[in-house]
TrEMBL record:
One of its GO terms (molecular function) is hydrolase activity. The keyword Hydrolase applies. It comes from the Bacteria. The lineage of its organism: Bacteria, Pseudomonadati, Pseudomonadota, Gammaproteobacteria, Pseudomonadales. It holds the Pfam family Abhydrolase_1. This is Alpha/beta hydrolase. SUPFAM superfamilies: alpha/beta-Hydrolases (SSF53474). It comes from Pseudomonas benzenivorans.
């Protein structure tokens, strides 16, 4: 399963590495939006159940992964920049669906607030409109490591907090990736985190008024950082949203164990492939064997 690789020029401002997984049988295309410090590789588990059901678009932000060699990375980019890039890629690849993970929910919701005509449905995973106490504690500790460019310290912090439910193999991959990032990537994340920790909410709720498509929010049962309880605040601001809680899962959902992978797959495919339902709440209680997803 080899993707078509391309570097897309976004209005001569950014050059973005993209991977396009085409399926001859697919009628719809979905784009995946990464969380912070992540690259296209972070969606390896997700790709397994989305393709070949859909054509799948993955991309690296200008400062990350295989995009960073094509950009100057002199200054950090904003979440508005990331939303602008996402909107351009939606048009470029003729995208029908969107799925974001963790901090990728911010540019995803900003982009959806612009009502891109092509997008029919969107899935927002491991995201919350609130910065609760555990998340603020994690971010404040992260600022210290980011400012000091403490690679090992940041890797341990991520694995001991939002990544604490990951299998040991994935924790090793996570630590190796985080501890090998370039300094500009730490500056990028510091600028973003420093901004959001001084706000009551990192999600600009006013942009949600423009969202007019069905949304599904998926969170892990044991994710204290973006909790299933906190995410339900979105129901007060969106006209058509559903919620799913993945049993016995933390922040990283389909990476954590096989049962979580299966349940996340079933929840997403049911939402994306089924008719648009006017529901405000949904929870799956799949009974599946526990195994490590590797």
């Amino acid at each position: 399963m080899k993707p078509a690789i391309a570097v897309v020029d976004v209005h001569r401002s950014f050059k973005v590495h993209t991977e396009f997984y085409v399926s001859p049988s697919a009628r719809k295309t979905i784009i995946l939006v990464n969380g912070s410090l992540a690259t296209t590789a972070a969606f390896a588990q997700t790709l397994k159940y989305l393709h070949p059901q859909f054509n799948v678009v993955l991309y690296d932000q200008p400062y990350a992964g295989q995009s960073k060699a094509h950009n100057s990375n002199i200054r950090p980019i904003t979440k508005e920049d990331e939303a602008y890039i996402l909107l351009d890629l939606i048009e470029h690849f003729k995208v029908d669906y969107l799925q974001s993970f963790s901090w990728g929910g911010v540019p995803a919701l900003l982009a959806l607030g612009q009502r891109p005509a092509r997008i029919e449905k969107a899935v927002i995973t491991s995201f919350s409109p609130l910065l609760n106490e555990p998340m603020l504690d994690y971010l404040e500790k992260g600022l210290v490591s980011l400012l000091a460019v403490d690679r090992a310290g940041l890797g341990h912090l991520v694995n001991n907090t939002i990544g604490k439910h990951l299998p040991s193999l994935f924790k090793r991959f996570n630590h190796r990736h985080i501890s090998s990032l370039d300094e500009h990537e730490y500056r990028q994340m510091f600028a973003h985190v420093n901004q959001v920790v001084h706000l009551e909410s990192h999600c600009q709720m006013e942009c949600l008024a423009g969202v007019d498509i069905p949304l599904l929010f998926v969170n892990g049962e044991h994710d204290e950082y973006t909790s299933p309880q906190d995410v339900r605040l979105f129901a007060e601001h969106l006209r058509d949203c559903q919620f799913a809680t993945i049993d016995n899962a933390g922040h990283f959902l389909d990476m954590e164990h096989k049962a979580a992978w299966l349940q996340t797959r079933d929840v997403l495919l049911r939402f994306l492939q089924g008719p648009a339902l006017r529901e405000t709440a949904y929870r799956s209680h799949a009974e599946m064997p526990h195994a490590i997803a590797v």
